[in-house]
Amino acid sequence: MKGRLFFKIFATYLAIAVLAIGIVGFLAGSQIRAKLEKQIELELMSYAGLVDLYPMKEIQSRVEEIARIARARVTVIDWEGKVIAETDKEAATLGSHLERPEIQEARVRGRGKTTRYSRTLKEDMIYVALPIRKGPEIVGYIRLARPLSDVRKTIEEFTAILLQSFLIILVSSVLVAFLFSRKLTTPIRDMEHFTERLRRGETPGTLMIRSSDEIGQLAENINYMVDELQKRIAALQEEKAKVEAAFSSALDGILILDHQGRIETVNRGMWTMIGERYRDLVGKTPLEAFRNLGLQKALDQYRSGGMPVSQEIELGEEDPVMLDVSITPVRGIDAAEGKTMLVFHDVTRLKKLERMRVDFVANVTHEIKTPLTAILGFVETLQEGAIEDRETAKRFLSTIARHAERLNRLVEDLLTISNIELGEMRFCFESVSLSGIVESVMNIIQVKARGKRIEIVSEIPEKLPLIRADRDRLSQVLINVLDNAVKFTPEGGKVTLASLPAGSNEVVVRITDTGIGVPKDEVSRLGERFYRVDKTRSRELGGTGLGLSIVKHLMTAHKGRIEIESQLGRGTTVSLYFPAA
Amino acid sequence: MEETRRTITHYERELQEIKQNLLYLGALAEKAIENVTASLLDRNSELARQVIEGDAEIDKLDTEIEEQCIRLMALRQPIARDLRFITTAIKLNGHLERIGDMAVNIAEKVLHLNEVPQLKPYIDLPRMAVIAREMIRGSLDAFVREECELANRIRRMDTEIDTLNEQIFRELLTFMLEDARTIHRALLIMQVSKNLERIADHAKGMADMVVYMVTGINVRHQWPGDTTDDICETKREES
Fold first, then answer.
1. What is the ipTM of this complex?
2. Is the C or the N end of chain B the one with fewer CB within 10 Å?
3. Cβ neighbours of A260 in B, within 8 Å
């Protein structure tokens, strides 16, 4: 990188230098040559002019002398062109010189001059010739010649100087190019490293280039740009993080399908919803991933209609989840054009509640209808004449009363439950001693227990920590639980009340019976409204199926809880946990 | 993103479409079995009628897939893998269509069964149905993922169904020997069982084709016990 720039600068310098020296050499060279030639010519001409003053004979005899003074070759030619005297050569060996251009010129114009190659001396020569006159008549010519080797030598010396300066320029331009290119490339290279780091996604910091020229300006711009870029990236990332957080923390399941209808993104809510039922969703079509007809039909409907579709589907083989799926196009982002978003809402619980509500209504109807049917039946029998038979009538009336009572209890229980659920029940919380309440409840229950010869033992110590409770509701809780215990314990059994040492902030009352117990897998369902382990039997015993449900609700209102353990045929233990006051 | 979009050719999209349609057909067949089983267990004749009506959709899709395959073969002249894919698709299509028909057969028997008192609690039949559905789903899974091992596992599941079928047969035989009045119902149940067993056979046929598609080895008339996962291994080393 650096090398290339260096050579560029170097070559430029060199080219300029070569061009300059070339032009100087050419122009100055030819100028110098012309000047020198002219000088020699004038010098020779002045010598020749001087010599011309002498008569022919004089000249002829003193040729050598003239040649020495004029530092030239001297030729004397007679009017016919015959060489009479010559410094360098024997006159006889020379042919006629009349045709020589300088002589011709001298003859015609009175003076002649040429520069040409002398075959005699095998050298470039300057010839100058003047006619020698005797009166008006030309008797001969004097010619002076000097070789051009002097000029050449001068030119060569000049060229040598040029070459020397060229060498100096060459060296200095290498040096300058090197320095200059380094000065130029260092900041550029810095910038290059800087942008490279930026490209790799590192945080490059600030570019430190102190320079006021364009490069400095560029560096400043880059710094500004990076700063701006990082700000924007940070803003984008924050925005993205927000969207992602919303996307992944949404409780609803979200699937995004790409242009080809393959699953592109799955959010965490989706995984939570479908659990272990499906794996490896990404990259598959929903049909491949879920193999679900309902979902596929909804998708087909969406694709053919282009309108958002909302539908309920059931996912999973065993323990399926009910999902409400909405299919909409992804809008607002160009890159997302053609993508589809599937939002799943878990309605399993809702569906369950819906079913519970339906079941509840059915149960209530059933529960009310049973005693009513009995009452109506007996009333009808009485109307049809049974009233005449006093004994039977009495028995029937007591049966009617019993059923009416049950109906009344049921309605009361229902009212209690609905009041608690609606939050309309008023509680009057105060610090209450458990032992006192247990005693009063025992008195009520004892009557019933004695009838079944069931022993009720209270092992609750006098000094229990006080609890915060509503006196009446607490009694109701204990009565309901004890009533159940007596109800489901055969004659001769035993019901024990005990207190357990629990944590310092809890008071526990444990009611254990030796009753019929509850099958293990049904324990968890106790407390559901109208749930009975043994339906006919419970009803015979006058239960409404709401007792434990009420207890559960009341315990929650007291910020306590209930735990039930049971063994079929061995008995049940109900533990009531109250928070200490 | 842009790149992947461009690399999907029209041809590939057609192959994908066939695959998706087959999966849809499979889902329909599975649903038919599920519904017909439910209609038997819950004595819900309405559901059985739905199954019978729903077969029209299966038949329609069957025709569509077949046409797609034939058109693709005619126009694109697929070779090697793609050719094996297409042949497999055609075969799977046929199997699934027959499975749909058998679900209809069962539904018809269920309609009769629901009109008479239940002979006995159904225990093995729903089990067979569950296995049969699993086999169909497994075969299609293996087809989509091109998994030889899975297909091979599915092939071996066929023996379970056969065992259950024989068990039902023996049980019903005792009923019939004891009381001639049960013969009608027992025969109906037996046909239900037989049809489920046939469905499983078709599912096994599908798995066979998947093995062929992945490895190029024909295992159709081999006892599943004789072929081990080795065929999957040997082929993999070659390729």
1. 0.75
2. C
3. 5, 8, 13, 16
